[in-house]
Amino acid sequence: MAALPYGVAKVYGHYMTINYRESYGMHASSGVLFNHESPLRGPEFVTRKISIAVARIALGLQEKLTLGNIDAKRDWGFAGDYVEAMWRMLQQETADDYVISTGETHEVREYLDIAFNHVGISDWEKHVYQDPQFFRPAEVDLLIGDSTKATEALEWKPTLSFDGLVKKMVDSDLEIEKAKAGK
């Protein structure tokens, strides 16, 4: 149920931004940002949960990773690119609303494949377990955004590929886990 209040709060914030812009003439833009990831993402998010586990498995500090639905598809982009988009929104003469996304969809399974292969583990399936308790009851099968408006009006597009994002996150967690382990 945690996702429901989170989603409702986001919709509320979006419409309040529009309300203040239209009612009070404020220069207030709203961005609908699809999943934006980085090494700073919290460990409770699947991308970071995977990058930490992959690093630990590669270093011999962990054996397995337990996940929910690895067939879920998401539009993941680099948070740094999304910050650039937000900055560009605020530079516009007229405030507006924009969708910020990569326009690509990738399965959790694909994230796993890139992450494990990056550390030299091709048979990752033996390390990954799916647990039904981690499946979301109201799972959205496919999330993908259309940032055409942002591309045209803001002259913005993502610069870091999905492959590059996964590797960046794994590399960061490899360094963190090596430091923790004194390696």
Description:
By secondary structure, this protein is an alpha/beta fold. It has one domain (3-181): UDP-galactose 4-epimerase, domain 1 (Alpha-Beta Complex). The protein is built from six helices and eight strands; from the N terminus they run H-E-E-H-E-E-E-H-E-E-H-E-H-H. The strands form four sheets. It has a two-stranded parallel ribbon with strand order 1-6. InterPro entries: GDP_Man_deHydtase, NAD(P)-bd_dom, NAD(P)-bd_dom_sf. Its EC number is 4.2.1.47.
TL;DR of this structure?
Its EC number is 4.2.1.47. This protein is α/β, with parallel strands linked by helices and 183 residues long.
What order do the helices and strands come in, and which of them pair?
Layout: H1 3-24, E1 30-33, E2 36-37, H2 46-58, E3 65-67, E4 73-74, E5 77-78, H3 79-90, E6 97-100, E7 106-107, H4 108-118, E8 128-130, H5 148-154, H6 162-181
Parallel strand pairs: 1-6, 2-5, 3-8
Antiparallel strand pairs: 4-7
Helix pairs in contact: 2-4, 2-6, 4-6
